[in-house]
């Protein structure tokens, strides 16, 4: 198979494999790698790839209701754990409410996604299972599909974007065993979804959507009745992370029918707020740009099934900055001993991001997943420090003379400031030389003093602005 092709490999003897299929690239300015536009928007023959569920059996349910979610619960119980509902002392003290955490990070696949994937695949008849299944995922849904395939003896091909952490890719192969193939393609969930659609159209395999199918939504929605059963009553406030919207669509629908007094709030990463954009526009609307960092929720377009369900259930939407989510990830780990992925920290991050919480109320936050690659923690820490205004970068022109750096340390840095990056190249034919300096402050309040001392110094100083190309390169 050509590496430039979006077409899936032909069905093979069952084997556990990991393939990397990337679009053909060409060199751009300064060696930049540019993906061919044709592969993002079109199939191998150049024709557009339609966003229709061409392989979804016509017998699929046409709606999601509290009843379809209740019916899904015993099916899902065959493979999904009844995860703990834990009272969290740290968040309860910070909010003045009773804050409970629904620990979906403790599922066998470390996320709630097993509920929806299994609920769909287990309902396929023998003929459909014999054709196999195909899906696209940023990682968590893929793990659910992989485990479902293994439990049900169904062959699956799983497409993931190149942004999917290696830890998630390896877990997919481990969970699926000999029943799955993993194919890496493109740079976004949408790229992987298009490739999965083309595969389904070519081979007749059943497409298992990550969020935009009534059976997937009903399975994911089973988290809601489980919470009420464990709590003994409905919470006053339910806070749910949002990517494509499957989890909140199911949970909000069930709550709206069974316990309409419960307020449901969905939390999206600021760089991928596709459901909020859909609610504002009145229909699913593609985002112009998506920040892939919160990979479990980095979806560019809300689902055509999930959007009306979220809208009609009256769920509220808010966003949390990616750096804030990183800060909450570190708090969950350091204070609560919970390993959450970025999407898994969205709900609890919302509690101190402007969400109105009544003192004494009962709040449940869904910790949606814990599939975090430990190699990402450097970036997590960096984003958290920047969000807290503790990490800053500067371009400083030093005179090329002895003692210049010592004067900078003595006269400009504060007593508790640390240099975390110093990149300087001596220029023999110049009087000054530029240095890229990273500074970590002990307190965000120290920034104004540092900026004043830099302004008063004879050095040429340029602050690296957040959002600039150089800043993105550094972070």
From TrEMBL:
Top EC group: lyase
Reaction equations catalysed: L-threonine = 2-oxobutanoate + NH4(+)
Matches recorded under Gene3D superfamilies: 3.40.50.1100, Biosynthetic Threonine Deaminase, Domain 3 (3.40.1020.10)
Pathway: Amino-acid biosynthesis; L-isoleucine biosynthesis; 2-oxobutanoate from L-threonine: step 1/1
InterPro entries xref list: IlvA (IPR011820), Ser/Thr_Dehydratase (IPR050147), Ser/Thr_deHydtase_PyrdxlP-BS (IPR000634), TD_ACT-like (IPR001721), TD_ACT-like_sf (IPR038110), TrpB-like_PALP (IPR001926), TrpB-like_PALP_sf (IPR036052)
CDD domains found in the cross-reference section: Thr-dehyd
Region (Disordered): 1-61
Start-end of Low complexity biased regions: 52-61
Cofactor dependence: pyridoxal 5'-phosphate
Biological function: Catalyzes the anaerobic formation of alpha-ketobutyrate and ammonia from threonine in a two-step reaction. The first step involved a dehydration of threonine and a production of enamine intermediates (aminocrotonate), which tautomerizes to its imine form (iminobutyrate). Both intermediates are unstable and short-lived. The second step is the nonenzymatic hydrolysis of the enamine/imine intermediates to form 2-ketobutyrate and free ammonia. In the low water environment of the cell, the second step is accelerated by RidA.
Similarity comment: Belongs to the serine/threonine dehydratase family.
NCBIfam families assigned to the protein according to its UniProt record, in alphabetical order: PRK08639.1 (NF006390), THD1 (TIGR02079)
Subunit details: Homotetramer.
Protein name: L-threonine dehydratase
Organism this protein belongs to: Aeromicrobium chenweiae
């Amino acid at each position: 198979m050509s590496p430039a092709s979006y077409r899936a490999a032909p069905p093979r003897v069952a084997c556990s494999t990991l393939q990397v299929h990337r679009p053909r690239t060409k060199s751009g300015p300064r060696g930049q790698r540019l993906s061919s536009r044709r592969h993002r928007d079109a199939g191998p023959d150049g024709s557009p790839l339609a966003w229709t569920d061409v392989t979804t059996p016509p017998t699929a349910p046409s709606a999601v209701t509290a009843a379809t979610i209740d019916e899904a619960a015993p099916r899902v119980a065959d493979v999904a754990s009844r995860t703990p509902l834990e009272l969290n002392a740290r968040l309860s003290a910070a909010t003045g409410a009773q804050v409970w955490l629904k620990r979906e990070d403790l599922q066998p696949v470390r996320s709630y996604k097993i509920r929806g994937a299994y609920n769909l695949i287990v309902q396929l008849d023998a003929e459909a299972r014999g054709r196999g299944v195909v899906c696209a995922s940023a990682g968590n849904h893929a793990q659910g599909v992989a485990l479902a395939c293994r439990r049900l003896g169904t062959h699956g091909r799983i497409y993931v974007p190149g942004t999917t952490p290696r830890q998630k890719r390896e877990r997919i192969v481990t969970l699926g065993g000999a029943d799955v193939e993993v194919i890496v393609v493109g740079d976004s969930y949408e790229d992987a979804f298009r490739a999965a659609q083309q595969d389904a159209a070519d081979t007749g395999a059943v497409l298992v959507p990550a969020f935009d199918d009534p059976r997937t939504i009903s399975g994911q929605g089973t988290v809601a009745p489980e919470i009420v059963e464990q709590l003994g009553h409905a919470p006053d406030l339910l806070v749910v992370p949002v990517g494509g919207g499957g989890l909140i669509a199911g949970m909000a629908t069930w709550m709206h029918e069974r316990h309409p007094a419960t307020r449901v709030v969905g939390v999206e990463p600021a760089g991928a707020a596709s459901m909020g954009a859909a609610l504002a526009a009145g229909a699913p609307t593609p985002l112009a740009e998506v920040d892939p960092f919160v990979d479990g929720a980095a979806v560019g377009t809300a689902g055509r099934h999930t959007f009306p369900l979220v809208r009609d259930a009256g769920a509220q939407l808010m966003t949390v900055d990616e750096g804030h989510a990183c800060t909450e990830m570190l708090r969950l780990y350091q204070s609560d001993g919970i390993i959450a992925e970025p999407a898994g920290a969205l709900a609890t991050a919302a509690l101190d991001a402007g969400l109105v919480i009544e003192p004494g109320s009962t709040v449940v936050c869904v910790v949606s997943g814990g599939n975090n690659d430990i190699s990402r923690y450097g970036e997590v820490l960096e984003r958290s420090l920047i969000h807290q205004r503790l990490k800053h970068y500067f371009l400083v022109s030093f005179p090329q003379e002895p003692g210049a750096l010592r004067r900078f340390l003595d006269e400009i840095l504060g007593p508790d400031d640390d240099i975390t990056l110093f990149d300087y190249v001596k220029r023999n034919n110049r009087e000054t030389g530029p240095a890229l300096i990273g500074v970590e402050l002990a307190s965000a309040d120290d920034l104004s003093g540092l900026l004043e001392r830099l302004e008063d110094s004879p050095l040429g100083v340029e602050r690296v602005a957040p959002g600039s190309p150089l800043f993105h390169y550094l972070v």
